[in-house]
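During the reporting period, our protein records have gained a structure token line. One record among many is quoted in full directly below:
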Amino acid sequence: PESSPPLRNEAAVRVLRGRMKGIQGHCNSCYMDAALFSLFSCTSVLDSMLFMPFPRCDRNVQGILRDEIVNPLRRTGFVRASSVMHLREQLTDKGQCSSFTNAEKDPEEFLNLIMQQILGIEPLLKLQSGGQKEQECYCYQIFMDKQEDLVVPDVQQLVERSFLSSDLKLVEIPSCFIIQMPRFGKEYKMFSKIIPSLELDITDLLLDSPRECCLCGSVATLECS
């Protein structure tokens, strides 16, 4: 199948900036538009979703995703709302949920449906909470209480504080770390803005990862939250 590479550097600016660029919104599609743009416009880390013959993969959905959404986005910087609606109609049929074509959904629900039930991809994340049994998932949704000292946070701060408040650790370094910000939905947004962290340091988030003692410089044996 045809493949357009993800956009990089000056090419990304040239192709994606300006009016009538991105994924055209229609009928509460913003959750899906934002997720698809984030996953595919400028990175190839999940391109296996577009080409790999997974054991339970639905070829029709995979073809729509690749040929009607990702390739046009990377090639011209624009995807018509009708292409996303075509995908939403297929998700409605496969997911046995009639509201995928007209209602606003949680991005995690969309990702779980398309990655697990339709394409059959193995979970991307392994998490452990408080020494309990590890759990697998496809993305991490940031949950945290409102903190007055965070007015315009960056992604690094939000991830660290969310992991700390939930007593979470990454069991292993993920091949892909999809993070859902606490800024979505029509009713409530915890932060007016969030600054993207272009790199994410997960050293302190890894389970049993050797780290340096902040006092003596040797390998640490204890961790203070």
Remarks:
- The two ends are 49 Å apart (CA to CA).
- The chain has two domains: 9-118, 122-224.
